[in-house]
User: Which sequence fits this backbone?
């Protein structure tokens, strides 16, 4: 039952070991002669002004929240997609499943139009 | 069980090696093709035709001095390249790359792990790569890196929805997420690029955005962000981001081939899918799969040196206001069409069914491109209203 997952586990271990090896080997093989100037953040040669730990636009949070909402809708569509045509609408039948999906899409569209009208998708 | 483990180990080693060598050659191919398109020579001094250039670059990167920016969060700064690198090399595991290979101990399927969850595994693992990018941007303590990381995360999650929706279309026709069964379904009738043309269009646009390639390479737009999230990275850690980006390209190309271009299927013949497994079939299908994947990789490079970069608000508008509604509407129309063809007209899924859907897609594509080309949603650099 879980046999197909064994190679994935092996691959994860193998790739992770490779990643660690790359970092460790280059850490020991490479020279390290730091100077204050070399370690300064790179801002095109200008002396850095202020810290990078500034506040940033709230838009990024907004996009992340919208993503969670709409991505979960996508996830809901996967089980529906599996039985819709593949199993010829097993159980309830294709017509019922289609109507079900249309209702779902309408609800989703209402939310989408609301988000658009509230200008949550604008970037300026 | 022992045989299964040994075969799996050999496949893991082979796939890992092929991807790493492929990525190395891909960086060379990118530079050579770029040079060719810009009418110059490109790297051609190290080895014949510059073939050893990637090896030289790799060696240099191992022995090069690394810089750690002064106020960086050291732990996360070291961790970020690994977090980006590991998922990038994991995603290829579920893609079948050839017909089964017969051996004296039984048949070996030419896929590292034929998981029942299929491409859901790829969608899940490839989104983990965004953590590496965000961590890199944040831990560098550099304003440009931070902006690059934020942009990358917003861009990747925006296009992920459209990408997921376009794979639901594939799922509708295949009825299964397992990639080997999706390939089998395409071998029976048509490659899904015909009956699902618009899904392929959505998928390829989303794939370009997910891999941060031009015209969507805003996270590392050198004109505004120096190098984006990997500004502060040098030597091997930079190289790991680079490998991650290119192996994501390889996986995205292979996934497009698998979902829409029949995977390892050889067109216009049933020789590869029927009858007993042969070594020759495995080799031939492997070559065909490689050729298809290379075509898409060439497309990636071609597009990079042809199209200009989007502006950031255009990128987000395209993702949220064009791709997402398009995917939703397309899915609705497709489901309705399948219902009409199957239940009303009583057709089973075969070539006739697929061609009917292909016609539907062609019609929808005409409407879509007519709509997109009004110059309002994706206005580009064209002045509107003044002419």
Assistant:
């Amino acid at each position: 039952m879980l046999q197909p997952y064994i190679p994935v586990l092996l691959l994860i271990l193998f790739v992770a070991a490779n990643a660690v090896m790359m970092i460790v080997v280059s850490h020991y093989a490479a020279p390290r002669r730091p100077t204050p100037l070399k370690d300064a953040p790179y801002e095109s040669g200008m002396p850095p002004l202020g810290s990078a730990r500034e506040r940033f636009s709230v838009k990024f949070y907004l996009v992340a929240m919208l993503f969670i909402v709409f991505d979960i809708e996508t996830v809901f569509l996967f089980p529906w997609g599996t039985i819709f045509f593949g199993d010829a609408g097993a159980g309830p039948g294709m017509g019922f499943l289609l109507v079900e999906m249309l209702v779902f899409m309408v609800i989703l569209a209402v939310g989408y139009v609301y988000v658009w009208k509230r200008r949550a998708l604008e970037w300026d | 069980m022992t045989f299964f483990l040994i075969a799996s180990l050999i496949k893991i080693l082979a796939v890992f090696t092929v991807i790493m060598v492929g990525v190395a050659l891909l960086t060379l191919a990118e530079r050579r093709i770029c040079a060719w398109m810009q009418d110059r020579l490109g790297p051609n001094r190290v080895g014949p035709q510059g073939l050893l250039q990637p090896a030289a670059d790799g060696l240099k990167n191992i022995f090069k001095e690394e810089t750690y920016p002064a106020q960086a969060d050291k732990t996360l700064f070291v961790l970020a390249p690994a977090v980006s690198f590991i998922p990038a090399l994991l995603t290829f595991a579920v893609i079948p790359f050839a017909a089964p290979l017969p051996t004296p101990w039984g048949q070996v399927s030419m896929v590292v792990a034929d998981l029942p969850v299929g491409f859901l595994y790829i969608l899940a693992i490839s989104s983990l790569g965004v953590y590496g990018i965000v961590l890199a941007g944040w831990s560098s303590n550099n304003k440009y890196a931070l902006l690059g990381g934020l942009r990358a995360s917003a861009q990747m999650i925006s296009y992920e929805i459209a990408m997921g929706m376009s794979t639901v279309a594939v799922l509708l026709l295949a009825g299964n997420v397992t990639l080997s069964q999706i390939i089998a379904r395409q071998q029976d009738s048509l490659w899904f690029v015909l009956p699902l043309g618009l899904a392929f269009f959505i998928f390829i646009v989303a794939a370009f955005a997910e891999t941060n390639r031009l015209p969507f390479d805003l996270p590392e737009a050198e004109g505004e962000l120096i190098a984006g999230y990997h500004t502060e990275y040098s030597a091997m850690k930079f190289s790991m981001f680079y490998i991650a980006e290119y192996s994501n390209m390889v996986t995205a190309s292979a996934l497009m081939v698998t979902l829409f271009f029949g995977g390892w299927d050889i067109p216009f013949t049933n020789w590869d899918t029927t009858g007993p497994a042969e070594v020759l079939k495995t080799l031939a299908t492997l070559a065909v799969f490689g050729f298809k994947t290379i075509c898409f990789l060439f497309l990636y490079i071609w597009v990079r040196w042809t199209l200009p970069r989007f502006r950031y608000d255009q990128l987000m508008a395209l993702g949220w206001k064009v791709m997402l509604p398009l995917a939703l509407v397309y899915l609705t129309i497709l489901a309705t069409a399948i219902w009409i063809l199957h239940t009303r007209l009583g057709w089973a899924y075969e070539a006739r069914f697929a061609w009917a859907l292909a016609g539907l897609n062609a019609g929808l594509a005409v409407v879509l491109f007519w709509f997109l080309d009004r110059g309002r949603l994706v206005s580009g650099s064209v002045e509107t209203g003044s002419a």
In short: The CA atoms of residues 56 and 93 of chain A lie 50 Å apart.
